[in-house]
Amino acid sequence: MDTDRTSDPILELDGVVAGYGRMTILNGTTFRVPRGAITTVIGPNGAGKSTVFKTVFGLLAARSGIIRFEGRDITNWSPRRVLEAGICYVPQGRNIFPELSVRHNIELGGVAAGSGITDLPARIKAALDRFPVLRRKADRQASTLSGGEQKQLEIVRGLLLDPKLVLIDEPSIGLSPLMVQETFSILTELRDRGVSVLMVEQNARSALEMSDYGIVLELGQTRMVDTAAAILADRRVGQLFLGGALEDVKGSLSSQA
Question: Which helix (H) or strand (E) element contains residue 158?
């Protein structure tokens, strides 16, 4: 791996345990997210991918372990405090106010910061200038947007706080191939502007092909952390996501953990 980036990670999980009720999903999850890069988390259903995001963002309590952001312990901080620290979370599915206009949906992104944003109108204008489709439809109801446009709206709303790290969960769900590529291009643009991106994506191959790094989770534990190219070239990962025997791959990954 690129030791220059990994020696100064923007986010670290160290032995994190978390779950729902009596069910434990993260079983000592440990990994580092490089600064200024796109990192994709992959793994079979139930691996804990989305649970990682909810725990980092404070929506789910960590039972043990440490979460660090820029070297600072943020374990079990409230979502508001995590957001103010510089982490934006774009959850899976559609999370907009369909009856409100596009502009009003974006404005609500600034409400999350309370009085922390003094130049909200200027930020909204800059955001709309970067997304011409949304600018043209700024006064329309959000429900009239296509699935891809709604995902852009969610991303724009999160970017109003000028985050250092974007957590984005399954950005391609329900999108056409063209809109998937457009969404990935937006994430690449963010990376090129210095924003770190941590992504969970069902289309593992496409996500890894546009990522710098990858993390493989299985049963709430980290099985591999490497460059995206190295993970794509790994035979076991290829079997897991390209129709190989799942149990064989799980056994192979578990044996090296």
Answer: helix 147-159
Non-local CB neighbours of 220 within 8 Å, separated by 6+ positions = 24, 25, 26, 27, 28, 29, 47, 48, 51
- φ, ψ dihedrals at 88, nearest 5°: -110, 140
- The single-letter code of the amino acid at 50 is S
CB atoms within 10 A of CB 3: 8
Q: Which tokens belong to 140?
A: 């329309």
3-state secondary structure of 61: coil
Report d(CA 67, CA 196) in Å as an integer: 16
Distance CA 238, CA 242 (A): 6
Q: By three-state DSSP, how is residue 9 classified?
A: strand
Mean pLDDT of 223-232: 93
Q: How many CB atoms lie within 10 A of CB 133?
A: 16
| pTM of the predicted protein model | 0.85
CB 90 within 8 A of CB 166: yes
